[in-house]
C-alpha cells in the first residue's frame, strides 16, 4: 500500500502515526494492498482556498476528501481492486481548535479526521441519519482498533 503523508502546514504532526492509521483503516476496509492514498496537511489559508473552490463555502475547514478511482470497501475474500483512492487534506490549525473544544489532543483529532476522510474516499457519507450512524460506527471501530494496536507497539 502506498500512503504518502506531506505536511505543508506550520504545525508539528506525528505523520508516521497518520500513515499507520491509514494502513490500519484501509486493511480494516479490505482495500487492496496495491491502493494509493495521499494525506496532505495544509495551513488555514490553503484549506480556505480549497474549501471555497470545491465546496463553495467560506473559511477553512478541518478535512476535505478528493476521491479518484471511486474505490469501495472490499471483503475479506474479495478486497477492493487496486487503484488510486484519492487525497485526504487536513488542516492541523482547525483540528487544534476542535481538539481543545472536545477535550483531547490535536493528534487524536487529526487521527479522527484522517479516518473520517478515508471513509469519505470509500463512498461513505453522513447526510442522512442512517448513513451517519453507519459511517460514525465504522469510524469509531477503526479508531478504537488502531488505538489498541498502537498500545501493543
UniProtKB/TrEMBL annotation:
Signal peptide range: none
Listed EC numbers: 3.1.-.-
Main location: cytoplasm
Entry-linked Gene3D superfamilies: Metalloproteases ('zincins'), catalytic domain
Residues annotated to bind Zn(2+): 116, 120, 126
PROSITE patterns according to UniProt: UPF0054
Annotated cofactor note: Binds 1 zinc ion.
Cofactor(s) annotated in UniProt: Zn(2+)
Origin superkingdom: Bacteria
Location in the cell: Cytoplasm
Residues in coiled coil: none
Hydrolase in keyword set: yes
Key word rRNA processing present: yes
Keyword line: Cytoplasm, Endonuclease, Hydrolase, Metal-binding, Nuclease, Ribosome biogenesis, rRNA processing, Zinc
Any single Pfam family the record assigns to this protein: YbeY
Family: Belongs to the endoribonuclease YbeY family.
General function of this protein: Single strand-specific metallo-endoribonuclease involved in late-stage 70S ribosome quality control and in maturation of the 3' terminus of the 16S rRNA.
Identification of the protein by name: Endoribonuclease YbeY
Originating species: Gryllotalpicola koreensis
The organism's taxonomic lineage, starting at the top: Bacteria, Bacillati, Actinomycetota, Actinomycetes, Micrococcales
